[in-house]
Amino acid sequence: MIEIERKFLVKSEAYQAVATSKTRIAQGFLNTEAERTVRVRIKDNQGFITVKGKSNATGTSRFEWEKEISFSEATDLIDLCKPVILEKIRYEVPFANHLFEVDRFLGENKGLVIAEVELAHEDEHFEKPQWLGKEVTGDVRYYNSQLSKKPFAEW
Amino acid sequence: MIEIERKFLVKSEAYQAVATSKTRIAQGFLNTEAERTVRVRIKDNQGFITVKGKSNATGTSRFEWEKEISFSEATDLIDLCKPVILEKIRYEVPFANHLFEVDRFLGENKGLVIAEVELAHEDEHFEKPQWLGKEVTGDVRYYNSQLSKKPFAEW
């Protein structure tokens, strides 16, 4: 499938009070090339392997394929991943008619908080909550695959 | 799981007459690094995604994880793979108490025929059929991931 999303910085902690879920995520990359990212993720006790293709010109849409795998398979595969393994807390935050996923990074990316909203098509309108900051869609530095190579602490 | 196998060149076509199966395989790689190979394979109408780790010092054993995926998922993922996509015919050839898998390569690797035998442990004894040639276990040039980067026609 094609994933269409826009990405923003987050300028206050107000999202936390309205979050409907909070999940711990650890993820590593078997490949961080822009043309073919291969990600291994552990989300609570679930495992996933995800392949993403190259983004379009605006950085909004991208081929994405994902398969659930066991927790034990995921831990084996995370061991094979390139350093650094990303650690983050994901908050699900509904606002108006959309769901925002807010990632608060830990470890070497501590201090970075990014919100993503998934859209049905590139031009879809959505209302912006007050805590939403500057748009960073398409800015390669904020790709998770890049944050595993050059974490926020080194910027 | 850990995969233990030895690899040989094949010096005659005699294996074809005793093969019990013959399958067409197409495969590409999402990553060809020695530390973490990610392979997408289409075997007849079945799809697979496979992650392999680094080989041990002798090149005999290696972590391997594989998951079956649909034909349609596999074709989507093969489109994302690095060039070159490998094409080969695989023959299953039982001999004495072991099963040999013989890969006859097509396309840019035409002329290359490689037999592999899977073992229960590194020192396991196995009888060698007459058509088996020189051992190439651990020779990086014969890794499929390498054949996709530097095919036999360019040697």
Automatic annotation (TrEMBL), chains A, B:
Superkingdom assignment: Bacteria
UniProt xrefs under InterPro entries: CYTH-like_dom_sf, CYTH_domain, NeuTTM/CthTTM-like
**Where does the CYTH domain start and stop, copy by copy?**
1-149
Sorted alphabetically, which Pfam families does this protein's record hold?
A: CYTH (PF01928)
Which Gene3D superfamilies does this UniProt record tie to the protein? Hypothetical Protein Pfu-838710-001
Protein name in UniProt: CYTH domain-containing protein
